[in-house]
Amino acid sequence: MSIDSALRSLRVEVNGPVAEVQLIGPSKGNAMGPDFWAELPVVFEELGADEAVRAILVYGAGSNFSYGLDLPAMAPLFTPLLESRGTDARLRSSFRRQIKDLQDAVSSVARCGKPVIAAIDGWCIGGGVDVIAAADIRIASPAAKFSIREVRVGIVADLGSLQRLPGIIGSGATRHLALTGEDFTAARALELGLVTELADDVVARGREIATRVAANPPLVVQGVKQVLDQGTEASVQAGLDYVQLWNTAFLPSRDFAEAAQAFTQRRPPVFTGD
Q1: Does 250 score more than 90 pLDDT?
Q2: Average pLDDT in the 236-246 region?
C-alpha cells in the first residue's frame, strides 16, 4: 500500500483481503473538515486499485460514525459567496466547483470497485449519511442514530443522500426524512432498509461480513457491484449536477446565514424564507 501514513482524518489498515477505513476526526464526533474531503477520494481510489484488497470496511472512531460536515472548519467554503450575497459570478462558479469536489469525494466510495461495508455506531448525521448511502452494505449498532439534517441548517443536501437514498429506502421515506430533518433510530433504519441488520459489536460484525465477501471470487463480486450500479449511476450523477446548480443559486440566503449564526450562538434559528 502507498497510502500516506500522515493521513489526519482517516486511519487505514489492511488485514489480508480486507481493508479497514476508520474515520478519526480530528474534529469532535469525526466531523468532516477539509482533511477528510481531501483524503477520502485518495484512500478509496488507492484501495480500489489494490488487487490484494477484496472488501473494505468503514466505521467511525470512538462512539460515533460522524457528526457530518464540520461547519466551522468548512466556513471558508461558504463565507465569500455569502458576503457577496451571491452577486459575484466568479465566486458562484468557484463555489459550484467546490460542491462538485465534495460530491466526487463521496462518490469515490460508490465508484470504488471493491464492495464497501459501513458499520455505524452512535450518530450518523448529514455528510455521514451521504457516505453510508454510497456504501454497498450498511449495518448498525442498536445505539446508532441518523439524521438527514441539512434542511435544518438551511441547506439542500447536495452530496448524494437525496440521489442515492430513494433507491435504498424509497422515495416516500427519503422525502419524509429529508424534509423534516428529524432524527431516527437504528430500529427505524432497519425497518426502512437503510441498514440490513443490527449488531451489538457492529465493527466485529462488519469484519465478519467483509471477510465473507472477500472469500468469494473477486471478479464476480466486482461484477455484481458493477451490474447493480449500472441502472442508477446516470440518474445519480444527473441529480448531483442539478443540486450543484440549485445550491450555487440559492444557498447564499438570509436563512442560511441565520442558520450559521444560530449554530455558533447555540440557539434555535428563526427562518423567514429570504
Answers
A1: no
A2: 96
pLDDT at 5: 66
Q: What is the DSSP letter of 256?
A: H
Written as one letter, the residue type at 187 is: A
- CA pair distance 162, 185, nearest whole angstrom: 19
Whole-number average pLDDT of the chain = 93
The residue type of 177 is: L
Supply φ then ψ for residue 105, to 5 degrees: -65, -45
One-letter amino acid identity for 98? Q
Span 239-264, mean pLDDT? Answer: 87
Q: What are phi and psi of 116, to 5 degrees?
A: -115, 125
As separate numbers, helices (DSSP H) first and strands (DSSP E) second, the chain gives 11, 9
The C-alpha atoms of residue 120 and residue 205 are separated, in whole angstroms, by: 11
Greatest CA separation found in the chain?
A: 56
Determine the Cα–Cα distance for residues 170 and 142; give it in Å rounded to an integer. Answer: 22
pLDDT at 1 over 60: no
Nearest by Cα to 25 from 10, 38, 39: 10
DSSP 134: T
Q: pLDDT tier at 164 (50, 70, 90 boundaries)?
A: very high
| Residue for grid cell 429570504 | 274
Strands, DSSP E only, in the chain? 10-15, 18-23, 55-60, 116-120, 123-125, 137-140, 145-147, 183-185, 197-198
Cβ neighbors of 178 (< 8 A, separation 6 or more) are 148, 150, 151, 157, 161, 162, 165
Residue 202 zone, left/alpha/beta (φ > 0; ψ -120 to 50; rest): alpha
Q: How far apart are CA 79 and CA 195, in angstroms?
A: 36
Q: How far apart are the first and last CA of the chain?
A: 50
Average pLDDT over residues 164-179: 98
What one-letter code names the amino acid at 262? Answer: A
